[in-house]
Amino acid sequence: MSAASYTIQGREVSLPVEVRKATNAAAMYAVPTAALQALLPGEAFDVVDIGGGQSQLILGLIDYQDNDLGDYAEVAVIAFVRPRGAPEAEAGSFILHLPVDQAFTCEAGCTIWGFPKSVEKIDYTYDDDSVRGRLEMAGKHVFTLRLPRGGEPDDTSVNPGVGYTYIEGVPHQTPMTTGGGAVLNPSGPAAELELGDHPIADGLRSLGLPGAPLLTTWTPHLSGSFGTPEKL
pTM for the complete prediction? Predict the structure, then answer.
């Protein structure tokens, strides 16, 4: 990850940005590839088909506690893609929506990596064995997601990866790492997804949601880094 720095709201942000402490509850769904492709902006990326015309979609509830960009709540809607015309390229994440609840991380994420961040109303409620996240945008309910949480992961190694974005309409890739491990299908209540009346909710309905996820994960000690974006 090459060194770079940006000035955001009068503060210098040096890359890579480090995440030292966070939690993440997530649900992975199998959705129709063609329908998910239709939700991607632009034409630079192809959704990864996992077989049978199906692709993976992740809904994540991330609670950052110690991060170079602050302590904030974030909701992620993520697909997995490859650059179009490059079937041998590494599959990576493409974030469709990334609402946050603070302005600094919003501007930093949009400016540096082209993440589709916006400042929205996010409420997290923690029970002994679950976390509930409710997202509202423009005064409308987008979705409420309740996921099980608990336990400790067996593997806490750091894994490299890549994220794909557009920066001012130009496709880029960003090296990133994720550490802390995840508990697969933690014990607790079954995942519950309630969709609201926002257009993003309609997009999720077009994928066949709500429905039972393939799996759920709980990452109690999330760490990671986001490097310098590179033009494709």
Answer: 0.96
Domain that holds residue 209: 18-220
Asked if residue 10 is part of any domain, the answer here is no
Q: Among 179, 172, 191, which residue's Cα sits nearest to residue 231?
A: 172
**Residue 106: in which H helix or E strand, if any?**
helix 103-113
Adjacent-strand bridge partners of 183: 218
Tokens for 43, please give them. 């034409």
Peptide bond into 32 cis (omega under 30): no
The number of domains in the chain is 1
Quick one: tokens of 67? 């991060």
176, containing H or E segment = strand 170-179
Dihedral sign, Cα of residue 176, residue 97, residue 193, residue 61: positive
Instruction: List pLDDT tens digits, range 153-163.
Output: 999 999 999 99
